[in-house]
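Re: beginner question about structure tokens

> Can someone show what the tokenized structure looks like for a real chain? I only ever see the sequence side.

Sure, here's an example I had lying around. Input first:
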Amino acid sequence: MVNCELIRLNAERKPMKAIYPVIKDHPIPEMNGELDHDGQCENRFDCGYFTLLRGRLIALWAAEEISATQLSNMLAVVAEGNLNATPFSDESNTEANDETVVEMFNNLKDVNNYMQKCSVEWITPFAELSGYADEIMCKQFSLYLLAAVSQMRQEVVRILSDEQLNRYEDIAEFLQSSPYGVGIQ
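And the corresponding structure tokens:
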């Protein structure tokens, strides 16, 4: 339904050029050497709204800004807000239209209100889909995100899937390798 993109910035805080991977082994020889637009390009990280929202919540939990009870309640609301998705899915399966967008925002009203009032400096830019996070904010967010993932992987009963935890690790690694920060779009 809603996607966002993290864009690595250069020293002048301008977006770095997207560098797409090249197709190496393709059954059609003429395709070898062509740009692979389906692959993950350098300097960009695509993620869904729900991925980033859950990532922010678990990072806040690892930073002890919210309790485990608050986390589980908010994650349940997020799962309910992600219309027509399985509980372990970050990707929405619902087509965006006036009705579904209104329903999603109504379901997520309390979580969104909390996130808007959240005064944790390093998480604030990631709540804005047109924000900017400097290198310090990226490092802090990524460290707490990795700490949360590490702790959750050790739990016997998990509230997030391995696939989700892998995705959050990927986000953290992207943020850590962004020395001048990221733009959020």
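Each token stands for a local structural state, so reading them left to right follows the chain. The chain has one domain: 3-66+119-184.
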